[in-house]
Write a structure and sequence with these properties.
The chain contains 17 helices and 26 strands. It is of the alpha/beta class. The protein folds into three domains: 240 residues, Glutamine Phosphoribosylpyrophosphate, subunit 1, domain 1 (4-Layer Sandwich); 169 residues, Glucose-6-phosphate isomerase like protein, domain 1 (Rossmann fold, 3-Layer(aba) Sandwich); 153 residues, 3-Layer(aba) Sandwich (Rossmann fold). The chain has an eight-stranded antiparallel β-sheet. Strands 5-6-7-8-12-13 form a six-stranded antiparallel β-sheet. Strands 18-17-19-20-21 form a five-stranded parallel β-sheet, with helices on both faces. β25, α16 and β26 form a beta-alpha-beta unit. α4 packs across α5, α7 packs antiparallel against α13 and α13 runs parallel beside α17. The longest helix is centred in the last third of the chain and has 36 residues. The termini are close together. Bound molecules: 6-O-phosphono-alpha-D-glucopyranose. The site of 6-O-phosphono-alpha-D-glucopyranose has 16 residues, from α8.
Length: 608
């Protein structure tokens, strides 16, 4: 989603603004722009496509100036071209925006009837026109900003600069995040602390309904009526992480290979390895007393929640209601305060997940957040925070966040089972031992399967459609496998519960649609093998992802069999995630797609 940066600095800002935009590239975008004020004149450069294009423009025609704002745009209203790229200029007002102005067409009609001329197809331009109108009516800049904020509806992070005030940037937040960075005689703002990490780690997060007036000397924060509000600054962890690819070709590859180390770090937060027990965590939610659990999330985070449902129900005998957040938020699901709700989000900013959280809060439920960004909105609005400790995930396709979410959910489910008396001390010890072994097994699998998967990916890249099948916790993995492959390689892929094969997808089986079967030798194995028989009988090609026992037990011909070590059920989803991620990754690399920033996708989805 759109990325925003602003600097009121002591020295030239254009280069630093583009550097900061680069740190926001992971969010996904299709055009970019920057504006500065110099010598009483506001100027901008904007370009379609990647930042490289914007940099070329800046090299040819540099933008001097010690104050500036910049933006990467993920198109919502209007195609991604230069005219629709931000900043938008109207009569000495510059605006960049992340989100959607929901009443933009009504505001646009009003402004058009008053003679405004619109250059772009964006919703953002109404903000610049509204501000220009209020300034023309004689309001001062601050009053114009507040008047504008009281007119616009929707979800937005807005940043504004005025040509006749080269010392101030104004910003407002209602939905998508905005972080203010405190420097030495300079101030910064950005969509997240990662963008600002080269400049400062002292961060103040705006909350919904805040308007910030930022100068080089500091920031004043008021509400939309102009009343001052106090927001404390904090030291962000973002700068503690090196956000680069190291020796890897892509962030996604780096993040796949980081998993053993990162998951062991995440587990140590939840598990006492010496005692072989799950640690008592955030106690705001008492899993022992719950009548049920509601889980909501989007995308890959939703699929980790779906695996979590199997675990909470099986190990803790806790019924789980789960849905994608975009449905959950509107379902008017009857809930009771004896239940708790868990929201899973890498970014902690996903608009639909946040709306679902607020619905559950209103219904009186205790709220738990399984998040990667601990300072995020979802974390801040929750009673209990369960960090996944994956470090910044830059690749748009989630990998390490997924397996860390799973590790946290597994630990929580085992802990809940203990609290509810459905997991004995011996069972807890056994499961914790398996979890503790996981990083080592992950390393081994990553090394062992990589060459085979790279070769297989060449074959897979020739196909237009792929079907993934799995049962039990391998069913959400089948969904995740299909999601991963389609989002980065653009090959059409679908995930199905293996038992559903005969209720529809079997009609598609032929030699042109490989079927990837995910089947560890667990209690469902025989049944899944029967489904494989059905595929083989119809001339389908099978890619079999199984373990040593499974490979020995099945005699069916396959296009390829990827054999993993035999592992316990509780860690199988994390281990089996690895070949699925590598298969999608290498297929995409082979096809030459933009692996880290696939077309049309965004890392942090702050609009509905
Ligand atoms: C986007 C990303 C996915 C992610 C989903 C939910 O679609 O591309 O990788 O799973 O949003 O994001 P969240 O930050 O809430 O986990």
């Amino acid at each position: 989603m759109c990325g925003i940066v602003g600097i009121v600095g002591r020295e030239a800002v254009a280069g630093r603004l583009v550097d900061a935009l680069r740190r926001l590239e992971y969010r996904g975008y299709d055009s970019a722009g920057v504006a500065t004020i110099h010598g009483g004149r506001m100027d901008r450069r904007r370009a379609e496509g990647k930042l490289f294009n914007l940099e070329k423009l800046l090299d040819a025609e540099p933008l001097p100036g010690r104050i500036g704002i910049a933006h990467t745009r993920w198109a919502t209203h209007g195609v991604p071209n230069e005219t629709n790229a931000h900043p938008h200029f109207v009569e000495g007002v510059a605006v960049v925006h992340n989100g959607i102005i929901e009443n933009f067409s009504e505001l646009k009609d009003e402004l058009l009837s008053e003679g405004a001329v619109f250059e772009s197809q964006t919703d953002t331009e109404v903000v610049a026109h509204l501000l220009a109108k209020y300034l023309r009516q004689g309001l001062d800049r601050r009053a114009a900003m507040l008047a504008m904020l009281n007119r616009v509806a929707g979800a937005y992070a807005l940043v504004v600069m005025f040509e006749n005030d080269p010392g101030t940037i104004m910003a407002a937040r209602f939905g998508p995040p905005l972080a203010i960075g405190h420097g030495q005689g300079e101030m910064f703002l950005g969509s997240d602390a990662i963008a600002l990490s080269p400049f400062t780690n002292e961060i103040t997060y705006l909350v919904d309904g805040d308007c910030a007036i930022m100068t080089a000397g500091g920031v004043e924060i008021v509400d939309y009526s102009g009343k001052p509000v106090q927001r404390r600054s904090q030291i962000s962890q973002a700068s503690a992480f090196m956000v680069d690819k190291g020796n890897h070709r892509h962030f996604m590859e780096k993040e796949i290979y980081e998993q053993p180390e990162i998951i062991s770090h995440a587990l140590s937060h939840y598990i006492d390895f010496a005692a072989n027990t799950v640690k008592a965590n955030d106690t705001a939610i008492d899993f022992g007393k719950l009548s049920g659990l509601a889980i909501s999330a989007c995308g890959t985070a939703y699929l980790s929640g779906l695996i979590g449902k199997y675990w909470f129900e099986r190990y803790a005998r806790l019924p789980v209601e789960i849905d994608v957040a975009s449905e959950f938020r509107y379902r008017e699901l009857p809930l009771s305060p004896s239940q708790a709700a868990l929201f899973i989000s890498q970014s902690g900013e996903t608009a639909d997940t946040l709306a679902s959280l607020r619905y559950c809060k209103q219904e009186g439920l205790k709220i738990g957040a399984i998040v990667n960004v601990r300072e995020s909105t979802i974390a801040r609005e929750s009673d209990a925070i369960f960090p996944i400790l994956a470090g910044p995930e830059i690749g748009v396709a989630s990998t390490k966040a997924f397996t860390c979410q799973l590790a946290v959910l597994a630990a929580l489910a085992v802990g809940a089972g203990r609290a509810r008396g459905t997991v004995s001390a011996e069972q807890e010890t056994a499961m914790v031992r398996h979890l503790a072994e996981m990083p080592r097994i992950m390393s081994r699998v990553l090394n062992e399967v990589q060459p085979q998967i790279e070769t297989l990916s060449r074959d897979l890249s020739r196909f237009k459609d792929v079907l993934y099948l799995g049962r039990g916790t391998s069913y959400p993995l089948a969904l995740e496998g299909a999601l991963k492959l389609k989002e980065i390689s653009y090959i059409h892929a679908e995930g199905y519960a293996a038992g559903e094969l005969k209720h529809g997808p079997i009609a598609l089986i032929d030699e042109n649609m490989p079927v990837i079967v995910i089947a560890p030798h667990d209690r469902f194995f025989e049944k899944t093998v029967s489904n494989m028989q059905e595929v083989a009988a119809r001339g389908g090609r099978i890619i079999f992802i199984t373990d040593e026992k499974g490979a020995a037990a099945s005699k069916l011909p396959t296009m390829a069999t990827i054999t993993l070590p035999n592992v316990d059920e509780i860690i199988a989803p994390m281990i089996f995630s690895l070949p699925i991620q590598l298969l999608a990754y290498h297929t995409a690399v082979f096809m030459g797609t933009d692996v880290d920033q696939p077309r049309n996708l965004a890392k942090s989805v702050t609009v509905e």
